[in-house]
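DATA SHEET
Item: assembly model
Revision: 1
Owner: S.N.
Input lines:
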Amino acid sequence: MSDIVLSVQGLSISYLTARGRLRAVNGVSFDLHQGETLALIGESGCGKSTLNLGVMQLLPRTALVDAGKVIYTPRGGQPIDALKLKGSALRRFRWAECSMVFQAALNSLNPVIRVRDMVYDTARAHGENDMRRIKARALELFKMVRLDPDRVFDAYPHQLSGGMRQRVLIALSVLLNPQVVLLDEPTTAVDILTQRTIIDVLKTLRRELGISLIFISHDLSIAAEMADTVATMYAGDLVEIGTVNEMFYRPAHAYTLGLLNAVPRLSADREALNSIPGSPPDMIDAPSGCKFHPRCSFATEICQTSVPKLEVLNRDGAAHWAACHHSDQVRLSAQEVLADDHAAD
Amino acid sequence: MTTPLIELHHVDRTFKKDNQPIRVLQDVNLSVYPGEILCLVGESGCGKTTTGKIIAGLLAPSAGEVRYHGENVNQLRGERLATYRRDHQIVHQDPFASLNPAHTIGQILSYPIARHRLAANRAEVRRRVWELLTLVDLTPPGDIVNKYPHQLSGGQRQRVSIARALTVNPRLIIADEAVSMVDVSIRISLLKTLQRLRETLGVAIVFITHDLALAKYFAWEGRISVMYLGRVIEVGRTEAVVHNPAHPYTRALIAAIPEADPEITRSKARLTLRSEDIPSLTAIPPGCAFHPRCPFFVPGVCDVAPPPLDVPPNYEQQVACLPLLGGGALTPYAEQDATV
């Protein structure tokens, strides 16, 4: 495919800890197409934030990129490995090509300068001198994210509510017209109606600007609403990836099925939900074979000894890969669960 | 119906900030019955946590009355007051902050038992601690009692919090966002533990959450009370509130929530509010506090006096919405404009 903007290939990232090396991201590969929205889901500590930081080269000093490439294709340019970028090229990549909205969004704005100065600083740092043009662009973006442009432009962060600050950050992230925006838990810790506004705003930006999004969330419902593609991560591994309908209606990895079975749905009646037993593994001394096997109800002997590979499931149909020795059984079981739900309706 | 365990009667609560009164709760009337599950839902600042604290006796109302078995809590003294306090226990939101990091789990669970003289001797305290740990599925208890909180996962810590609440045999547990800080994959098992405790011990649970889907799952056999800017605006059986919401605010919430099902969530009917911003608690709008945002606003009706909480025609739950209580159907504000 030619419209791939970001291709992560075999990316591995480790943290050096007192107890030894912790593999936080383990050989993860995926492609992000133009205008595509990819949701990365998984429990806390599964490596999804590390992966995003790695793409941006924002990892702390204790982290090492062990292997892999992040191939980025600029508009009308040749593909480059974003992990090899340095100096001014790296600065340009960060924000003008690929920007990020951080998780602690409420603390990501400088409290002592006005929003307009953050806008100007960002533009200036990237060699933009025409401030009139930048102001017009910012006001237009603020309108797009449903803020009152003139009020917000001159405000200090403390004069804005949490939801408004989050939207300021989202507007700032697309100020330099990047192709890719990474969002880390964009709607965690905001209220229901604010969350709805942010989701709608992101949808608008995606449509108007044609940007590609990678967003990290532990909230499956936002993935269901926003994503074209969903990827599940477990203990540093990308264990399943597929189109949103495949992932939600025909999951093939026991862990994805487990997550789906643990989330209540408002529109359903009484539900038979279940948590995933146990807790995520110690990533320094991870279980052998499939790392999920100690918590998995489908596990057999092979799961303890052999590491499952990410394999194509539908040779002809919708894109879907899973790394599970028992993906057939998981799918059968998923069908039954879905059938049960329909019977309950 | 049986007599309520605890009742809030016209409870107001005002806090002062910079000498300016902030009305956090206004005219809240709620009853909790023995052994029931009542969910308090609403957005931040709606007063759900304050309500929980008032039920637990950790905060006094500024006006109105809290009745415990029909008695005004304010007038309780001595043993009656101690019983009231023991009967109402809280499980806090943050399992990392609510357990003393310098004490072992065994110590954390022993103190209340010793303080309230609920065991005759040390052996009995120990036996009771083990029993409590088993009750909240922290097994085998021997692996847990000598550990410190930092050695446990968030979910395990929250189980310790629940066990600690149970040490004094409460009649009511107030769980304030008790699962919002643990991973999605293990929330359900914590809720199941709480549900099982309710069934086996008959303890009532007031579950405070901003997550309506979770409230629906947990309180399917109980009731949901929706709060907005310090008032209860809708309360009733969970199924009625969730599947047939009456108040425009409840409708807006339910329409806004994304669901973990791509087809349902993408085809859901939306309800657009007239304003995105929640008014400040220092400037609560007159009449129905929701009227500046309400898509069904009726000028001259909604902005005059606060609506009473009552059962409107065609609904089974109590709703604080004058147009609905008047028996009419809700009409969009814009259309009303056109007809005037």
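QC remark: The longest helix of chain B spans residues 184-201.
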